[in-house]
Design a protein that fits this description.
about 240 residues, alpha/beta, Rossmann fold, 2 domains, four-stranded parallel β-sheet, about 15% strand
Length: about 240
C-alpha cells in the first residue's frame, strides 16, 4: 500500500489517458477495466475524439494530454499510457512533462520484438489507419521507417466503427477485418515473423490472429502488463 496525496492507493496503478469515445469497450479492449489484472486509473481527455487523434494528427491536443497526465499522477498513477497508438507523436513531449514513466503507444514494442528475431526476419504492424500513420508516429516510438505495415482501413467494420465513434460494434465483422489484414501483411511481407498491433482496441482479436498466422502477436495489453511488472516485481522466496 502507498500513500498518494492523502489517499490510500493499493498496488501499482497504471494511468490511462483515454480518448473521448462512445464505441463499445469489449473484454480485452484497453478501455475495459476488467481487461487488466491490476489497478487502472482512467482519465478522459475532452475533445480527443478518435478521428481527431488519428486522422487529424492530434493537432492542438498536447497540452490537454499533459494536464490529464498530471491529474492521474496526482491520483496515484505510477506510469502513464494512452488508449491510442497514434499518440506516439507525443511520446517525447509527454515523457518530458510528466514525472513518472510514459509509454504512449504499442508501437514502442516494435524495436524490442525486432531485436529477438532471427536475421532476415522482421516485425509487421497492423494499424487501424494505414493512410494516417506517418513517419512522425514511427519516429516517436523508435520504429524503423521501412516497417512492414498494413491497415484495417479497407475492412467492413473495425476502422469504420472505431474511428467513426459508432454506438455499436460488430465483433465478428471486426475479427474478420483483423484476420484479413494479418493475411495481407504476411502475404505482402513473407519475412514477417512477429506482429505488433498498433490499436488499443485490437487485443480482443490477438489470439485469433496468432492462431491464424502461426506467429507471435504483441499488443498494448502485453506491453502494459510487462511495464507494470517492473513497477511491482515479484518477490521470490530465497534463503
Amino acid at each position: 500500500m502507498i500513500a498518494k496525496g492523502g489517499k490510500q492507493v493499493y498496488g501499482a496503478p497504471i494511468g490511462v489517458l483515454m480518448l473521448e469515445a462512445q464505441f463499445p469497450r469489449i473484454p480485452g479492449d484497453m478501455g475495459n477495466a476488467e481487461t487488466w489484472p491490476f489497478p487502472v486509473l482512467y482519465k478522459v481527455v475532452r475533445a480527443a475524439s478518435p478521428d481527431r487523434i488519428v486522422r487529424q494528427g492530434a493537432e492542438g491536443m498536447l497540452d490537454p494530454f499533459i494536464a490529464a497526465g498530471r491529474e492521474l499522477i496526482g491520483q496515484g498513477a505510477e506510469l502513464i499510457t494512452t488508449n491510442c497508438g497514434f499518440l506516439a507523436v507525443f511520446q517525447r513531449e509527454l515523457g518530458a512533462a510528466l514525472s513518472v514513466p510514459v509509454a504512449t503507444s504499442a508501437l514502442m514494442q516494435v524495436p524490442l520484438v525486432q531485436a529477438m528475431l532471427p536475421p532476415g526476419k522482421r516485425v509487421g504492424l497492423i494499424t487501424i489507419s494505414r493512410s494516417s500513420l506517418t513517419s512522425e508516429h514511427l519516429e516517436g516510438a523508435g520504429c524503423p521507417a521501412d516497417l512492414a505495415i498494413v491497415g484495417t482501413d479497407d475492412g467492413a467494420e473495425f476502422t469504420r466503427a472505431i474511428l467513426g465513434n459508432e454506438m455499436t460494434l460488430d465483433v465478428a465483422a471486426s475479427r474478420e477485418d483483423l484476420l484479413t489484414a494479418a493475411k495481407a501483411l504476411c502475404d505482402a511481407h513473407p519475412q514477417v515473423a512477429a506482429i505488433v498491433l498498433e490499436c488499443t482496441n485490437m487485443p480482443p482479436y490477438q489470439g485469433d490472429i496468432a492462431q491464424a498466422t502461426g506467429l507471435p502477436v504483441f499488443s498494448i495489453y502485453d506491453y502494459v502488463c510487462w511495464l507494470q511488472s517492473g513497477l511491482r516485481p515479484r518477490r521470490f522466496p530465497i534463503a
